[in-house]
Amino acid sequence: MLGRNSRDQELRDRAQAVIPGGMYGHQAVGLLPEDYPQFFSKASGARLWDADGNELLDFMCAYGPNLFGYGHEGINAAFVKQMNIGDTLTGPTGVMVELAEAFVKLVSHADWAMFCKNGTDATSMAMVTARAHTRRKVIVMAKGAYHGAAPWCTPRPAGTTKEDKANQIFCTYNDVASLEDAVAQAGDDLAAIFAAPLKHDTFVDQIQPDAAYARRARELCDQTGALLVVDDVRAGLRIARDCSWSKVGVAPDLSTWGKCLANGHALSALLGSDKARKAASHIFVTGSFWYQAAPMAAALEALRLVNETDYLEKMQRLGQRLRDGLAERASAAGFGLRQTGPLTMPLFLFDDDPDLRKGFCWSSAMLERGVYVHPWHNMFLCDAMTDADIDLALNAAEGAFSVLKKQAASLAPVEKMAFLTA
User: Fold this and answer.
1) How far apart are alpha carbons 90 and 99 in whole angstroms?
2) What is the pLDDT of residue 3?
3) Helix (H, G, I), strand (E, B), or coil: what is residue 239?
4) Is 355 helix (H, G, I), strand (E, B) or coil?
5) Sheet of strand 55-58: strand arrangement
6) pLDDT, tens digit, 9 for 90 and up, residues 13-29
7) Which residues are bridge partners to 338 per DSSP?
8) How far apart are the first and last CA of the chain?
């Protein structure tokens, strides 16, 4: 595979000179198998081409933004049409009002919407709104949950201070007693409970939300006057056409959205109930590009497709086919493959694989066969995928399991994953 990555390696070498570390953030490939490409050249539908021109069926979907297919004709046409009319202006266009109306109509708990660019923008806005509403400081969050890359929530401590993460108390996801204890520790200073729609932490099995846990979070917020925030940046519109916790019958006060909201065009959002409207109107949050009209026009078209197509049911059906087929092939090859999370957001981890050596070997074999899967992060399906794509993935998986079976006994430890067993 390395021989196929000559252009990618050239770009990596050049990047080392002008980009700190060669690459940064969640799209850096330092913790992926060595044969995974860092750079890509183009994408269409469910397909991605790396910098060397290798075609890949992409189960990462740009880490989530690709919902209806890369380069979706209708969504891109709405974007380009608005771009030609006006995009970054001295003030917003009426498209912002149209989008807020459409989004509020779609999401049952929402009475208002504010738009920004990244998931971190939205979660930071939610935190500030909750503190403005309650005039309190403490945020309760689940251990291991990811809510963005700002100093208050980044999972990596470099360059941050303990003050950046002050006034945070952590609980265990789906553990009611742990949640109650965290709220008790906060006392009368609790501003918000932040909740992921499911436990989608990296390196560990995903866990669906327990309805009793979700209901208790709602009750505790009601009892204390704190706000309940569901961070739907990653899962929004992939589990439901509403806030993801609508599936367990719980409505938050605030919800954060991003990723696939505009099918890859830069846009995220904070939605809220009337309870938090006054506080949201008094905080100061802004950005030079937050009010761009073209991404909002793209989002309007994406929300139309959400309402008028069976995109979600299609992805769930394909996800079930993928899950069933992988389980059958893994069992036939003698491997325990744990498939967790929603059908539309799968995660694959092998049994008895603490440093992911099996996962790395299998993922590399999948890549060699033209299928991009991730060895430790949840993946995504998109509406552009077809039954033929699932067949391709399952055929690739059968070959990859065969490779793993031959090599499993001799696989060396994955040194870059040693921290998992430290």
Assistant:
1) 19
2) 57
3) coil
4) coil
5) 40-44, 47-50, 55-58, 371-372
6) 999 999 999 999 999 99
7) 349
8) 30
Helix (H) or strand (E) holding 303, with range, is helix 293-308
Alpha-carbon separation of residue 177 from 5, 169, 183, 330 (angstroms): 50, 14, 10, 37
Which residues, 6 or more positions from 176, have their beta carbon under 8 angstroms from its beta carbon?
A: 210, 212, 213, 216
Q: Is 372:59 a contact under the CB 8 Å cutoff?
A: yes
pLDDT category at 1 given cuts 50, 70, 90 is very low
Q: Which amino acid is at 93?
A: T
Least Cα distance to 47 among 39, 57, 61 occurs for 57
- Residue pointed to by tokens 């389980």: 327
Per-residue confidence (pLDDT) for residue 4, from 0 to 100: 76
Tens of pLDDT along 237-287?
999 999 999 999 999 999 999 999 999 999 999 999 999 999 999 999 999
Going from the C-alpha of 21 to that of each of 8, 24, 168, 218, the distances in angstroms are: 15, 7, 30, 42
